[in-house]
Design a protein that fits this description.
By secondary structure, the protein is mainly alpha-helical. The chain has helices at 27-48, 55-70, 81-96; strands at residues 12-15, 18-21.
Length: 97
């Protein structure tokens, strides 16, 4: 006979670096990812995102360095309209900077 424990009922848990919440809302995770991506953008901005670079090169750098940070774990997110607007405004912020 195996000693199996009943699963614990929790409010949220961390799965591969992503926060999974009981009510399946991802707003906290999305805001956290946007904050990390903005920090990464500002860190790279001085060296890599200067106006001397070709626009296509800057776009590729943003997609490589910034979008990967912002969208890590996005395949498990359930997006509401507010979350989608936050992500869209973050994208516009990247192109404006």
């Amino acid at each position: 006979m195996t000693d199996q424990k009943e699963p614990e009922d929790v409010e949220y848990f961390n799965c591969s670096g992503s926060m999974i919440r009981r009510e399946a809302r991802c707003s906290r995770e999305i805001n956290s990812r946007i904050g990390m991506a903005k920090a990464a953008f500002n860190k790279k901005k001085k060296n890599h995102f200067t106006s001397k670079l070709d626009l296509n090169v800057r776009k590729r750098l943003v997609r490589c360095y910034i979008s990967s940070v912002a969208l890590y774990g996005a395949e498990i997110w359930t997006l509401g309209t507010t979350d989608q607007k936050h992500l869209e405004s973050f994208e516009m912020w990247c192109w404006k900077e």
